[in-house]
Amino acid sequence: MISWNRYGKARVRLVKVVRPPAGPHSSQPHHLVDLSIDIQLEGAFEPVYAGDNRLCIATDTMKNTVYAIARRNTFEHAETLASILADHFVAQDAVRRVRITTSEQPWVRLSTDGRPHPHAFAQSGSERRTVVILRDQDGAVVTSGLADLVLLKTTDSAFAGFRRDELTTLPETEDRILATSITASWTYRRGTSDYGIRERIRTALIEAFASHNSRSVQHTLAAMGDAALNATDTIDEITLRLPNRHHVLADLKPFGLDNPNQIFVPTPEPYGLIEATIRRS
Amino acid sequence: MISWNRYGKARVRLVKVVRPPAGPHSSQPHHLVDLSIDIQLEGAFEPVYAGDNRLCIATDTMKNTVYAIARRNTFEHAETLASILADHFVAQDAVRRVRITTSEQPWVRLSTDGRPHPHAFAQSGSERRTVVILRDQDGAVVTSGLADLVLLKTTDSAFAGFRRDELTTLPETEDRILATSITASWTYRRGTSDYGIRERIRTALIEAFASHNSRSVQHTLAAMGDAALNATDTIDEITLRLPNRHHVLADLKPFGLDNPNQIFVPTPEPYGLIEATIRRS
Amino acid sequence: MISWNRYGKARVRLVKVVRPPAGPHSSQPHHLVDLSIDIQLEGAFEPVYAGDNRLCIATDTMKNTVYAIARRNTFEHAETLASILADHFVAQDAVRRVRITTSEQPWVRLSTDGRPHPHAFAQSGSERRTVVILRDQDGAVVTSGLADLVLLKTTDSAFAGFRRDELTTLPETEDRILATSITASWTYRRGTSDYGIRERIRTALIEAFASHNSRSVQHTLAAMGDAALNATDTIDEITLRLPNRHHVLADLKPFGLDNPNQIFVPTPEPYGLIEATIRRS
Amino acid sequence: MISWNRYGKARVRLVKVVRPPAGPHSSQPHHLVDLSIDIQLEGAFEPVYAGDNRLCIATDTMKNTVYAIARRNTFEHAETLASILADHFVAQDAVRRVRITTSEQPWVRLSTDGRPHPHAFAQSGSERRTVVILRDQDGAVVTSGLADLVLLKTTDSAFAGFRRDELTTLPETEDRILATSITASWTYRRGTSDYGIRERIRTALIEAFASHNSRSVQHTLAAMGDAALNATDTIDEITLRLPNRHHVLADLKPFGLDNPNQIFVPTPEPYGLIEATIRRS
Fold first, then answer.
1. Helices (H), strands (E): how many in chain B?
2. Which of A120, B252, D127, D196 might form a disulfide with D149, Cβ 3.0–4.6 angstroms?
3. B236 lies in which domain range?
4. Rounded to whole angstroms, how far apart are CA atoms D264 and D259?
5. Is residue D176 located within the same domain as residue D120?
């Protein structure tokens, strides 16, 4: 006998970009909401447990509902979106009680040249500062770096013109989200002791990411590496590791909705991974 | 100047089911391979870093390649699949060196009634045994359970006949992979002290999962709960929490390939989550 | 035959507090360094692999060395500490090559009343904003909150006067590090729609943590709850969950060193966990 | 006003070894229990929230209580230990309600030469099979391996006679727990295609771990490497990475209890890390 039951979809990932009306390259600021949403329904679903699915709302449909409702509505706070979702599901057959849970990842707008950037953001907290020292009888090699600096830009990123073969299905895009978690390392020239230089390199990496008109992750990586080398003459090369944190445009056409770069699904795997060393010419 | 570069796709997830020729309900054993694959290319990709993508093999294409090659080839060992992938990529323009990495998740075939089951498997290692004791002046309530017992069956699972509305896109299926990570808990009648009964409950849960002809996760949950209650009279109810570890059939049509339930993509999020308490009638 | 070997200690955790000379309650700022350090040695250690330990520096000794060297030296950058460690180990018998790796967790100084706080810090990045909506035919209950807001203060925290029994070994302390990862949730009165109030609650929690003269985690929890209730009349209660992220004073006496609240070992487990609901009287 | 409160210690880690009476090197089997325990108390603790700690049982004392009670009592099931703990805490001043939670990590007894081993165990589930293929125009190099194979032995492991300097505090021991999470990799001679050989290598590693009379992790590593090379002539070297999963003997002297290698505290960090390549002579 079913004495209690609840079911739903967990970890529906939603990134919504609110873009200014004038177009993607406007200097008006973009706004970004990054949510993980859980939907749980309680109700008279006993027949489902006996093998009769007629009352069952597929959890896949719940996921679709999140994206469609996020597209149709404006909301400043996650509470508002969650309320609209709750109203939607409580009106369905057999549902007695709805629980909507959201967990919001805050993003901080980047500043470049002392001004807030219109469309570049950081997750400040995961970053670590790294050091590797290799020491033998001949002395020490000091390599500094940073790890897990998460950046995202909502425009000024394209990926088009790449090779196509019979296994290629990816559409070209002139405007996408570019997000990554930067790992960088650089080796100081022997004798360097001004380790405060790390801040200058870090700022150069971030500003290059934000301001670059990107044709690919590789293209942005090279710009970031060049900027770091230009920021100081205490290093001669820098190695960058940029996983591509894909944000897939949600397909809303089945619901009769367009999606002009507003509703994205961040996907944890698989992910592109671009690594290179940029050396002073 | 680009002094070193490497790029590719990481964590391409592949589950391949090798099924006996006679059809899904045969008693011949299915075989299961569960891999996470990384592809990394080195070569003359410098133009990509300058913004010219013509030589760039999209990492999305690398992902597609894994699924197409896994469909077209038979392999007993991951080494063989990795070798075929390496041969494929080393023959592409600009590529000088290929690195293929695989990490294989072992699955252990379940036994039921003392015989190896044809299509039900476990990941034995993540499981934990749990206990919660609530104690006040009136005495103790002892709840035992298990957590993170990962099971998978390659057939005898359907999901069809569910409610469709304008936000429903999920196709019906009469044959899918069913995988879950079981959390279960049950409270003993006061005075019970034979805690070895846990093994009987656990066996009942596993055998019910394996032998059930499933119409939904809910349907299987109820069968598992009933089996547990039938296995012992020391408990009167059991609560089960079954996340649906979705395995999506890879879409190989763009490559001119069919996919008769052989090549699956396990997806970590979002996931369905089914919870219920089954009580003795 | 040993053709290559390397060994050492990984994840030696060090928190060093640099305190102003005038005493713990001075308004001069404290500084905080939070490192995870790996030490790896290569050298002529072949006899150890044959069972002869005479050349073996125990990895436990490497851990002790980190704490002793961190106490004896001043350093502004992790690179400096790592260099001193590398110099120490490369001078030991049998060692040919030393690799020191550090990963630094940045902490951001809190501001209270618009001014930088002398001894309270945050790890900004792990925080999430949470919402739970429970909806049935009678309407919705909206609960907002935050999770994983990591705060630390280097003084103004004591734990003394607690019950002692024959199983108590913890010494009393009038000055310790207090660190926690805050989870908080509050339910709005029906009809509330100004969800921007969350920022006022969050600020109240942070400022109370920073400014409170703490006798225990429980004591600080109550002060935080009261501050949140005083910050808004849209909520009547708040539930707080404060794990105690213990920072154990390193015992440097075996090395002839004192440790006036400078060198701490953060320990991940076990941890105290304090939970309570504070309701408006 | 405190309307609800609960506090306690979380993740108290306990490994208890039940050893046969005749001594550590007997062939009688050892038994192993591996638990993580949470203790939570509810009661009249309001004064603690006001800064008066006299009623407060320190969570550190709760941790001590676990180890002392685990030493004083025999138990076959975690439910029994949890019940004794609950009885202990419910009898304390101010306590109204106790919640004891345990999570048990199962260990599987190893078999060697077809017989159950008296004191060597595995956590079967975390293991992965790994492959790395490097491919260029000259052909492919195939490296296979395994990762995260967790093994533990409760005796036949010593660490003594190591170098002592003024920073050494580790006592010598002739009998300790040895636990590790093995990562191994080996490169096949060109032309090898019998990848099933991996099972023979894996068995050799496990049997060497179990049967070796260990003077150090390094000593065991060499024995494992030699065993792998002896198991097959398709490889010429093997690289092993053995983190030392330390199990610290709990200090029960303050409670008037001895601890003849029975009650251990597994510690996650820091950890020793031993790596080497063993080549065929």
1. 5, 12
2. D127
3. 108-246+257-279
4. 9
5. yes
Q: Is A161 exposed, middle or buried (0-12, 13-18, 19+ CB in 10 A)?
A: middle
Residue A150 and residue A265 in one domain:
yes
Q: Say whether C276 and D13 touch across the interface (CB within 8 A).
A: no
Locate A47 and state its tokens.
């027949």
The reply to whether C268 touches chain D by the CB within 8 Å rule is yes
Contact by Cβ (8 Å): C49, D219: yes
Mean pLDDT for C86-111 is: 97
Which 168-207 residues of chain D touch chain C by CB within 8 A? 168-170
Q: Which chain D residue's Cα is nearest to B150?
A: D125
Residue D1 lies in a domain: no
Burial (CB < 10 A; 0-12, 13-18, 19+), residue C74, is exposed
Tell me the average pLDDT across D194-215: 97
Q: Does this model's pTM top 0.90?
A: yes
- The burial class, CB within 10 Å (0-12 / 13-18 / 19+), for C27 is exposed
pLDDT at C26: 59
Query: Tokens 């004495």 sit at which residue?
Result: A3
At D63 the three-state DSSP class reads helix
Residue C87 within any structural domain of the chain? yes
Question: How many domains does chain A contain in total?
Answer: 2
Q: Are B99 and B113 contained in the same domain? A: no
pLDDT, position C193 = 86
Q: Which of B104, B132, B165 is the last residue of a domain?
A: B104
Residue D51's CATH number: 3.30.1130.10
C190 and C80 inside one domain: no
Say if B143 falls within a structural domain. yes
Cβ contact C142–A99 (<8 Å): no
> Left, alpha or beta for A139 (phi > 0: left; psi -120 to 50: alpha)?
left
Q: Confirm or reject contact between C60 and chain D (CB < 8 A).
A: yes
Give the model's confidence band at A24: pLDDT under 50 very low, under 70 low, under 90 confident, else very high.
Answer: low
Residues A175-202 as b or e (16 or more Cβ within 10 Å = b): bbbbbbbbbbbbbbeeeeeebebbeebb
Are residue C20 and residue C135 in the same domain, yes or no? no
